Amino acid sequence: MTSGAQTTTTNSGITVISPNGGERFTAGEAINISWKYNDDKASDRRADVYAMNGTTQQIIATNVSASTPLVWTLPSSI
Fold first, then answer.
1. How far apart are CA 40 and CA 2, in angstroms?
2. What are the helix and strand counts (H, E) for the chain?
3. pTM (2 decimals)?
4. Burial (Cβ within 10 Å: 0-12, 13-18, ≥19) of residue 54
5. Is the CA virtual torsion 66, 72, 74, 78 positive or negative?
6. Which of 18, 27, 28, 35 is the most exposed, having the fewest neighbouring CB atoms within 10 Å of its CB?
7. Closest CA to 49 of 37, 64, 71
8. Closest CA relative to residue 33, chosen from 51, 55, 54
9. pLDDT tens column, 2-24
10. What confidence score (pLDDT) does residue 2 get?
11. How far does the chain reach from its first CA to its final CA, in angstroms?
12. How far apart are alpha carbons 64 and 47 in whole angstroms?
């Protein structure tokens, strides 16, 4: 099973670095997720990270900073 990456930003102050769209992943693959904030308060900001498959949403991580390395293994259910 493969899944195409789709990036959605709900705040124009965030730039997704990776994955940033068009990637294809296989179930069980480890995916590095990274982003940056586009303002001077970046060190104070936190984000929730989700995966979407149509209408199904799965929480990957909550309340993480952009400086926190985030690796997520793609489950077969997505």
1. 37
2. 0, 7
3. 0.68
4. exposed
5. negative
6. 28
7. 64
8. 51
9. 444 545 545 557 888 898 888 88
10. 42
11. 9
12. 5
